Amino acid sequence: MAGATMTTTAVVVVAAGRGTRVEASTGGSASARPKQYRLLAGRPVLSHSLAVLSRHPAITAVVVVRHPDDHALYEEAAAPYADKLVAPVAGGATRQASVLAGLEALTALPGGAPDRVLIHDAARPFLSATLIDDLIAALDASPGAIAAEPVADTLKRADANGRIAATVDRSALWRAQTPQGFHFDAIRDAHRKAADANRHDFTDDAALAEWVGLPVQLVASSGTNMKLTTAADMDLAERILGAATAWETRVGSGFDVHSVAEGDHVWLCGVKIPHTHRLDGHSDADVGLHALTDALLGAIGDGDIGYHFPPSDEQWRGAASRIFLAHAVDLVRLRGGRITNVDVTLLCEAPKVGPHRPEMSATIAEILGIGPDRVGIKATTMERLGFIGRGEGIAAMASATVQLPTAAS
């Protein structure tokens, strides 16, 4: 209709948390990835939501609120969806503060604030386009609408001793989920009012909307829109995605060789080993990681290490070969793939590889994001035959097994 204007809808994705319960349940440490960046079916958890949001025709902009320490992890997860993403913003001390930071970022968009906003937790990777449609439709008749699931279990109220005190009527009870959608100005102003009143205790945006008197419509969701909180949740999500995705298995191989030169150490499979010579090459000449990089690139049909990192490019002179391997890993993940296992065989007379094998396995596993039990490291001599047998060089062979989603998936 002439003169009509399109209603715009933006999204705030809250991804600033630390995921301590997942780490605690897996025996992880503070250096482990926060749960929103843990790999799920080969991709960071955050990527699953961003994929759905970026493809939805009604979504005009997405801003991710992240922890300041997570810049590299965010870039890894968000790179394929940059078209609809605006610059990420730093989160606050609470989820509520993080949401307000995201809302303020949308307020400052060059084209002005959106008409509506969906607020979604990054730890819910099973967001669907249908649920987004239902929430947006509900906002035509209500200033607020949230995804929610009717409570199916019988509920008990406990006394101070942990005994049942009463059975709770569940007929009108719902479990709140995200996304939670609102008319933009109304929820932004509600968040500002709560901040001014020093109220930081609201557990979700719908509770804050209730506080200021905004009606909120319940939109039926399902148990598949689960929030990942514990390691068991991560395992269940992996099984769900594995059952829903058709995978094809790819195998790639790689080979590399470098001659020796004057020096006092060699780099092999990411480990610095004292030696009578060094390996001669444009980078650190790590034949193990070079061969493995080519194996991964071969599995996804994306050229070789020289194509991605030309030796004529001075920026790679003396570079650590783990950079090359990490790039190949990123390319696998951008295709939605996952690395099943890798195997490296080093061909040399010296140095002895056996004492360094555990460190090599751990280093490669860390770069690939898989367990050390999925990394094979072997070594063999050439029985003093040929240039390797004469100690004039070291070579490596590698293979990599990768699973990629089929085109239908």
From TrEMBL:
InterPro entries: IspD, IspD/F, IspD/TarI, ISPD_synthase_CS, MECDP_synthase, MECDP_synthase_CS, MECDP_synthase_sf, Nucleotide-diphossugar_trans
Sorted UniProt keywords: Isoprene biosynthesis, Lyase, Metal-binding, Multifunctional enzyme, Nucleotidyltransferase, Transferase
Presence of keyword Nucleotidyltransferase: yes
Keyword Acetylation: no
Region of interest (2-C-methyl-D-erythritol 2,4-cyclodiphosphate synthase), residue spans: 250-409
Entry EC no(s): 2.7.7.60, 4.6.1.12
Example GO BP: terpenoid biosynthetic process
Sites marked Positions MEP for the nucleophilic attack: 170, 227
Residues binding 4-CDP-2-C-methyl-D-erythritol 2-phosphate: 256-258, 282-283, 304-306, 380-383, 387, 390
Site residues by UniProt (Transition state stabilizer): 21, 35, 282, 381
Pathway in which this enzyme or protein is active: Isoprenoid biosynthesis; isopentenyl diphosphate biosynthesis via DXP pathway; isopentenyl diphosphate from 1-deoxy-D-xylulose 5-phosphate: step 2/6; Isoprenoid biosynthesis; isopentenyl diphosphate biosynthesis via DXP pathway; isopentenyl diphosphate from 1-deoxy-D-xylulose 5-phosphate: step 4/6
UniProt-annotated binding residues for a divalent metal cation: 256, 258, 290
Region (2-C-methyl-D-erythritol 4-phosphate cytidylyltransferase): 1-249
Domain 2-C-methyl-D-erythritol 2,4-cyclodiphosphate synthase: 250-402
Molecular-function annotations in GO: 2-C-methyl-D-erythritol 2,4-cyclodiphosphate synthase activity; 2-C-methyl-D-erythritol 4-phosphate cytidylyltransferase activity; metal ion binding
Top-level taxon: Bacteria
Named cofactor requirement(s): a divalent metal cation
Recorded catalytic activity of this chain's protein: 4-CDP-2-C-methyl-D-erythritol 2-phosphate = 2-C-methyl-D-erythritol 2,4-cyclic diphosphate + CMP; 2-C-methyl-D-erythritol 4-phosphate + CTP + H(+) = 4-CDP-2-C-methyl-D-erythritol + diphosphate
Function: Bifunctional enzyme that catalyzes the formation of 4-diphosphocytidyl-2-C-methyl-D-erythritol from CTP and 2-C-methyl-D-erythritol 4-phosphate (MEP) (IspD), and catalyzes the conversion of 4-diphosphocytidyl-2-C-methyl-D-erythritol 2-phosphate (CDP-ME2P) to 2-C-methyl-D-erythritol 2,4-cyclodiphosphate (ME-CPP) with a corresponding release of cytidine 5-monophosphate (CMP) (IspF).
NCBIfam families in the record: ispD, ispF, PRK09382.1
Family of this protein: In the N-terminal section; belongs to the IspD/TarI cytidylyltransferase family. IspD subfamily.
Protein name: Bifunctional enzyme IspD/IspF
Originating species: Hyphomicrobium sulfonivorans
Source taxonomy: Bacteria, Pseudomonadati, Pseudomonadota, Alphaproteobacteria, Hyphomicrobiales
